[in-house]
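Death domain-containing protein
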Amino acid sequence: ENPPETRRDSLAALKPKLSRKWRSQSKDEGKIREYERLKEILYKLAYKHLSHGEWKRLAYHWAFTEDQIKAIEHQYNGPSSYKEHGFRMMLIWAHGLGHDVNPVKELYESLVAIGKRPLADTLRRKIDQENESRRRGHKEKCNKCSIC
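Structure:
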């Protein structure tokens, strides 16, 4: 059996590993929240702001092929199916972005490129307001905190 100091040392050696794991889980949770927020934005964009052919203009801007567009269209049909097509296409687009790409910035620039600057500006303002209120919320916590 190990002497008590050795056992204590081995337990202490575990703590940094657990701490690192906890931090990475927290980071993953943040990424998940960001992705869920992006999905909300894309959903509202597809269902409330893009008209019939505009989702295809975005798809072509993002270099979707004709076959990819047809595959998206094949799954749903009906008078409002273009909304679901647009949402699915934007989810596919977002999934293909690199980790270093800001999806909201890319979306803004793409909306401007297809002639939807007013919508892009509205989107940017809304997100900036949300970020500002979130930042203020954190700031208020820090003002009450005795450490900061």
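The radius of gyration is 23 Å.
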